[in-house]
Design brief:
Layout: E1 2-4, E2 12-14, E3 20-22, E4 28-30, H1 33-41, E5 59-61, E6 67-68, E7 79-81
Antiparallel strand pairs: 1-4, 2-3, 5-6, 5-7
This protein binds zinc ion.
């Protein structure tokens, strides 16, 4: 499962499972699904959204303050677009 990390300078990611992933030549990490989801929850994004990942595009949860690329936070709250 391919995931992109936030920021072009990210070359390696340590996943919650303990695995370390290196960025491939396309700037994506090919991760196990659970690690991919964790990376997305931590600020990464699915490649399908990679055309809209400029700074300032994203959402922030109004309940817990978690930054997200999705409108629905993992805590169950609703995220609003960041200014
Ligand atoms: Zn939240």
């Amino acid at each position: 499962m391919k995931v992109a990390a936030q920021g072009e300078m990210v070359a390696e990611v340590d996943a919650p499972s303990g695995a370390r992933y290196r960025r491939d030549k396309n700037g994506l990490f090919d991760m196990a699904p659970s690690d991919a989801r964790a990376l997305v929850n931590g600020g990464g994004f699915w490649p399908s959204l990679s055309g809209s990942t400029r700074k300032g595009i994203g959402y922030r949860c109004t309940t817990c303050g978690f930054g997200s690329y999705f409108k629905h936070c993992k805590c169950g709250g609703t995220c609003e677009r960041e200014a």
